[in-house]
Amino acid sequence: MKVTIKDYEEYLYETYKNHGIDSSLFMKLIEEIGEVAEVLNKRDGRKAKDNEDLIEQLGNELVDVIHYVFAIAALNNINLNDFIIEKDKKASIKYNHKINLVDYLLNK
């Protein structure tokens, strides 16, 4: 099953619309970013690790980050799909990328 950005935004809006508080969600986002950093530190040998599946942990922590980013966007009626496309267009010009996201998708 594939999920679209729009579907995920709508789902998270429904989940948080009656009790989602931006500042609380932002604090959870920061916590999850810290957990991503912890996994990366373990992977790169800067922190001790046991017999852990770091790929699985990293995937789970990245999903948590995405969850809170999308929840904050949904509660603020921000269409991340549109912002992703526009931001990528600007970045591709600024950083002289050979292709932007729209062209990539059209040529795929």
Overview of the structural elements:
- With 108 residues, the chain is mostly helical.
- It folds into 2 domains: 1-77, Orthogonal Bundle (Helix Hairpins); 78-108, no CATH class.
- 72% of the residues lie in helices and 0% in strands.
- The protein is built from 5 helices and no strands.
- It has helices spanning 5-16, 22-43, 54-75, 80-94, 101-107.
- It is globular and about 45 Å long.
- The model has no long low-confidence stretch (mean pLDDT 95).
Shape: globular
Task: Give the end-to-end Cα distance, rounded to a whole number of Å.
Answer: 20 Å
Model regions low in confidence, pLDDT < 50 over at least 5 residues: none
* Sheet with the most strands, sense and barrel status: none
Tell me the helix content: over 70%
- Arithmetic mean of pLDDT: 95
Sketch the topology as an H/E string, one letter per element.
HHHHH
What Rg is obtained from the alpha carbons, in whole angstroms?
17 Å
Individual helix count: 5
Structural class: mainly alpha
CATH fold descriptor of the largest domain: Helix Hairpins
| CATH hierarchy, class of the largest domain | Mainly Alpha
CATH-assigned homologous superfamily of the largest domain: MazG-like
